[in-house]
Amino acid sequence: MQNKGLIKLFAILFGLVSLYQLSFTFLAGKVEDDAKAYSEVKGVDSNARQRAKFERTYLDSVANKDVIDLGIAKYSYNDVKDKEMNLGLDLKGGINAILQVSVKEVLKSLSNDSKNVFFNQALDAADAKQKDSNDNYLDLFFEEFEKIAGNTKLSDPSIFGTKALSEKIKFNEDNATVKETLQEEINSSIGTAFEVLRSRIDKFGVTQPNIQRIGNSGRIQIELPGAKDIERVTKLITSKAELQFWEVYTNAEVQGFFFNANTKVAEILKDDTVLEKEKDSTKKDDIDDLLGEEKDSTNINQKNLFTYLYPNVAQSQQQMSSLVAQAKVLDTATVNNLLNRKEVRALLPKELRYVKFLWDYKTNKGVDGTELIGLYAIKSNRNDIATIEGDVILDAAQVFDQLNKPEVSMTMNSSGTKQWAKMTTDNVGKFVAVVLDDYVYTAPSVNTPITGGRTSISGGSMTIAEAEDIATVLKAGKLPAAARIIQAEVVGPSLGQESIDASIWSFGLAIILVLVWMILYYGKAGLYADIALIVNILFIFGILASFNAVLTLPGIAGIILTIGMSVDANVIIFERIKEGLFKKKGLKQSVEEGFSVKGALSAIIDANITTLLTGIILYVFGTGPIKGFALTLMIGIATSLFTAVFITRLLIDGAVNKGANLTFNTSISKGWFQNINVEFLKKRKIAYIISGAIILAGVASIFSIGLKQGVDFKGGRSYVVRFNQDMNATEVASTLKGAFGTAPEVKTYGTANQLKITTVYKIDEEGQEVDEQVQNTLFTGLESYLGDTTYENFKPGFEKEGAGVMSYMKVEPTIADDIKTSALYAVFGSLLVVFLYILLRFRKVSYSIGAVIAVFHDVLIVLGVFSIFYKFMPFDMEIGQSFIAAILTVVGYSLNDTVVIFDRIREFAGIHTKWKYSEVVDKALSSTLGRTINTSLTTLLVMLAIFLFGGDSIKGFMFALIVGVAVGTYSSLFVATPIMFDTTKKDEKNV
Questions:
Q1: Which of 394, 533, 370, 532 is nearest to 452 (CA)?
Q2: Helix, strand, or coil here: 710?
Q3: Is residue 203 located within the same domain as residue 313?
Q4: pLDDT tens-digit profile of 587-596?
Q5: What ranges in 280-413 are assigned the alpha helix state H?
Q6: Both 371 and 401 in a single domain?
Q7: Using an 8 Å Cβ cutoff, are 174 and 141 in contact?
Q8: What angle do the packed helices 955-971 and 845-869 form, to 10 degrees?
Q9: Per the database record, which ranges form the Protein translocase subunit SecDF P1 domain (predicted)?
Q10: Which domain holds residue 367?
Q11: CATH at 759
Q12: Number of structural domains, the chain?
């Protein structure tokens, strides 16, 4: 092998980089463990919400402190958190939701809630049609309007030809042009909703949040791993944006109050800290040392308001500002608490009685690099009603002034124009604030009254990005509807931790089984393959950490599968080397041929490419955890190919050059699968009958019994509920029938004290209040089994020490149809791509036909097994996204096996030109039998380890893989190859 030095250097450097990247995951975990220890000391044992708050407080306090010292570099918690490997919801807990911005509400808003009969009839028709269609809502509305409107156009003054849209939609404009304008407005509304949600999530405090738009569908996907307060998150992402315009006090007007408050706070803190010091334990003080908190009573008693708040003092007219103070981001909660205390509010003079302190929406860096945030004093009133609400905004955009500096152009409706004129007239020389969701986005000075309804907001240092943010905020004032959750998955942190523990155990066991088997079967060569395998695992996790990829339970299964493929590559190589040794070619020549293209490399590359193509299709059409599975599968294919071919080769070449006697077997495995000569083709008719009978039984079951569709395919709500005692699923279903009207589906989930409850109760009704109502109904129905568990502790989120909802999933029927359609595209797309690849690679249609029919055979058998047994198995056998991932994995594995066999048939056909084609096929199959059985057994051992010891949520997925791998191995030998033979035009009788 050439360039050995370069490969060694690359492997060493890549290994070191992988270890470096993974180290941050361990370092972040260490800090989080300290945070948990702190929360356990500070919090009350039974109050998970309080413990979560203290945990968050700890992490916030060390966010920018150097908590890790490696000697050569120091890192804060934020530094290591940014570099750690992300964990998916099923491992970490949290919420994943898809929100829908209602296009219908946008259209109604744009039409000024038109009463036009044709318009409203078209909306109703589009509503009905969308339930059974994957087309976007605007297309459906447009289609229905064209059917019924006659000569009425969308640009009619009673619909979209309004004064507000006069600059965008001309009178009597054709419908196609109006539709383009409406699409732009809808996209703008969705973009606005997206920005508002992103701003809220950024302030929520969850690390590594993910928010993205899904095309032009009006859907927004949000993932918040680690979120525990699910109720707060839900309100945060579904509430309508509240844009307000307020008058503000200047720094000069409030600084007197600040100085008086400072004295009062010093007295308060003195009393509070004395009491607190009496309560503190030694252990608590130790943890406070970690946080760098002062314990000295003299220093504590000297603290005051200005310890946390830095007032913006105005000593002259030129220093007057709307910014009244600043504080460290970590101290904002403390400042809020102090300023809202009754004793402090009592110091407010009469003219400041209703003042409301709000923070800036963005932070800035202090001189020492500390993150600071500005504070504003809003002129509120007794009823806390803003001077102007955001619904008066017609449009807003980032533009440039005459000096080419960025500014914001804002237009109001007639009512807003009058209110704005009065507000700006009353505040000339003062300031007004634009506030969204209680955060101040800008508080500019008013130079002259603005009476025309069109306003420019500018600032000396305003950037384009800031101007765009403000324009987005202003447009959010006319956000037509709050986004509603149409799909949600919630996993509690307790269940996430259990999944991690189970995954580590099953993963470790699977690796040990593979390592031991390779040594037992191949001896010292197996040890070299094991070293390459360990390096491969290091590379996979290193890449995942480097690119901040998300690791999920299906992702771990993908890694396990790539381990099987890595072993498969080594098995193919070793079997070819053994063939060379059997033919007395000598060790060095056998190794050379085994690693060559003419040896094993061609089959390895073909097999990996077919699996890679499957992974790409899965990544394109999959969502959530399935994307994670596809990503780890693709990464694993690349690393497996490198380690199996190059790392193993380096080790074996090194041993050969040192004169080692490598036999590629042991005393146990010596002679296995040698001199095999099975006439497979003569048995193909029996195989056809067996396969046909199994498939017919499965198809009959599918059409009679059906398949158990998961919530993500049929719509509904699914809850995993844990109890303090073992439960009877039938009894619970009967009990809940009274609450839900119809009996939900109830099944034991994992342990006997855990149930999975699935219901379609009120799934067609919209609104966050409906979700809350269904959850409350579930609690009421289960109350007799829950002991002293309160509704607050029953709800998902936070750690569960007793009974409660461990995870929750909701999918509305419309998006369930979309998911199902994407899944079908994924399956048939992968089959088409693989068919074309095999046709291109082997240049014979018969090879493609054999491979694709074998894949259909495997898929039908797996579906049949799931239909026949789903009522009897003690684990979930649902047909959902995870099942589709399993099916596509089976497709990839089956093709991998088939391609290896086809490659050997092609090789034998080129060498043994005088043999009958049937003999070529039988000999080729016999020669690969050792590799086929070895690889299949290894893969099955790995999958059985995960199935038996992995998490409950992955058992159905792994069962599908186990059945698929077993059937795929059989079909490669008895279906794919015989069909390829039968469709090849060869004149051979009696075969």
A1: 394
A2: coil
A3: no
A4: 888 878 878 8
A5: 282-291, 297-301, 332-339, 342-345
A6: yes
A7: no
A8: 140
A9: 192-248
A10: 243-268+303-478
A11: 3.30.70
A12: 6
